[in-house]
Design goal:
globular; alpha+beta; eleven-stranded mixed beta sheet; Rossmann fold; single chain; 3 domains; 23 strands
């Protein structure tokens, strides 16, 4: 439904803007269950395009899809101590079914490591059965106290990969492979640049040996953990007797990884590209890349010809593999349609009225003005239709370039003073790069005083040319450079 009410400006209240734009662009709505959401067709169409692109990448790297149960025995969750402690506050537990109390409570999966590695232990006997590379598309439940559509909900959709390997080197290679795959997808498809690196001990996944993350910077200069990849070592293998006979005939425990991204990426897309008119959907993810709006008045003799020409232009775009929709709705004015499609973030709009029909032209309107030209142009129909596939790719590249520019403008390097870091986070936000001694007490102090965390120990590509030699705390030598931020 068209909605021409103005959104709360981002600069006035970013959180209010986000909630309004998600609802009014018809991405999602609140469900009757606390903290859960209904993903509407427009939002689900974006998620489907994310799924399709990622699924191809998983399969191209040798992974296969499977499905594991929604309900997990509580005893499975409790086998891995760090794992259960990390998830215990968020567990949803089924205690009754069929009118009776269950002998053992069942947990609605918060993640599937335990059930997956139980099954792996049945399927793996020899090194010849490895590596085992499995992915699952599923829903999970984590009973969050504070929820926000897409960013943090009690139930959400995701993919979770789980693998078993014969050596720690192979497992580590897998962990890094997936981290790079996630980064490539986020940058090429969501046009959302990320900083990759390792999590600190206090921030890693419960039960992991090492966790790696993709961290994006939103327009309000808060970080978003967009995806994670974990080297689990043998922690879960030992608890679930996931053993194999090695080439030497010895019995060994397998080495595991797990990794996942979720519908949180839809929220990341909104906060990376949206403006005060609505969301902006990168062309590669847009369910509709081009919308054609016939502009006709009631009783206009040219109306049938205009509608026919709109369908004809749509057919030409479909032949070029462009996702297109013709808005033939007659109960809405052209202006109301413009508002709706702007709010939904469709990359291009074509307007076609009586004069355009006579001149064999079309009005081409980009959702966001290009770097070097007007947002709205009158162009010959044949030229516009021929060029639109190229313009869509150009739009995709510009969104990424702008997002990278914003991130770099809000990345502060070489910060050596605690007070300076606090001032940056209080007044500007963004990524603050400092030295760190490795002392977790420094992390805890930053959480308490600044509500900031170390997002990653950045990969070499993202490290400063000259990192500080002293810890940001002012005490001790720096052992590594880290990126701090306030985060979602």
């Amino acid at each position: 439904m068209a909605d021409d009410r103005k959104l709360t400006p981002r600069g006035e209240d970013f959180a209010a803007w986000y909630n309004e734009v998600v609802l009014r662009s018809e991405l999602a709505d609140y469900s009757p269950v606390r903290g859960s959401m209904v993903i509407r067709p427009w939002g689900y169409g974006i998620w489907e395009n994310m799924q399709a692109a990622l699924d191809r990448r998983f399969k191209d790297t040798g992974h296969e899809n499977a499905y594991f149960p929604l309900l997990i025995p509580m005893s499975f969750i409790e086998k891995e101590k760090a794992h259960v402690e990390g998830f215990k506050p968020e567990l949803a537990v089924v205690t009754h079914a069929g009118g009776k109390e269950l002998e053992e409570p069942l947990v609605v999966r918060p993640t599937s490591e335990t059930i997956v590695y139980h099954m792996f232990s049945k399927w793996v006997q020899s090194y010849r059965d490895l590596p085992l590379l499995i992915n699952q598309w599923a829903n999970v439940m984590r009973w969050e106290l504070r929820t926000r559509l897409f960013l943090r909900t009690a139930e959400f959709l995701w993919q979770e990969g789980h693998t078993a390997h014969a050596t720690p080197e192979e497992a580590e290679q897998e962990t890094r492979l997936i981290l790079g795959l996630y980064r490539e997808f986020m940058e090429r498809w969501i046009a959302m640049p990320v900083v990759t690196g390792m999590k600190t001990e206090s921030e890693k996944f419960a039960g992991a040996v090492r966790s790696y993350s993709c961290e994006a910077l939103m327009q309000d200069n808060r970080a978003l953990q967009a995806g994670t990849s974990h080297f689990l070592g043998q922690n879960f293998s030992k608890q679930f007797e996931l053993k194999f006979q090695s080439v030497d005939g010895k019995e060994e425990y397998a080495w595991n990884t797990s990794w996942g991204v979720s519908t949180r990426m839809v929220g990341g897309m909104v906060m990376t590209h949206g403006d005060d008119q609505g969301i902006v959907v990168p062309p590669r993810l847009a369910p509709v890349q081009v919308v054609i709006v016939p502009i006709v008045k009631s009783g206009d003799a040219k109306a049938p010809a205009i509608h026919q020409k709109a369908d004809e232009l749509a057919g030409m775009l479909i032949a070029q593999h462009v996702r297109v929709r013709v808005d033939h709705r007659d109960h809405l004015s052209p202006g109301a349609k413009f508002y709706e499609w702007e709010r939904k973030g469709v990359p291009f709009r074509l307007e076609l009225g009586p004069k355009d029909l006579d001149k064999e032209q079309v009005v081409v309107v980009r959702r966001v003005a290009p770097d070097d030209g007007p947002r709205k142009e009158f162009l010959p129909q044949s030229h516009a239709i021929t060029m639109l596939p190229d313009w869509l790719e150009e739009f995709q590249r510009e969104l990424l370039a702008r997002a990278i520019g914003r991130r770099e403008e809000n990345s502060f390097r070489g910060v050596t003073d605690w007070g300076e870091m606090k001032d940056i986070l209080d007044t500007k936000g963004g990524f603050v790069y400092t030295g760190w001694s490795g002392d977790p007490a420094v992390e805890q102090r930053a959480k308490e005083e600044m509500k900031a965390t170390i997002r990653v120990i950045p990969d070499e590509e993202f490290r400063s040319a000259s990192a500080p030699s002293r810890c940001i705390s002012g005490s001790g030598t720096s052992r590594m450079e880290v990126a701090w931020a306030r985060a979602y």
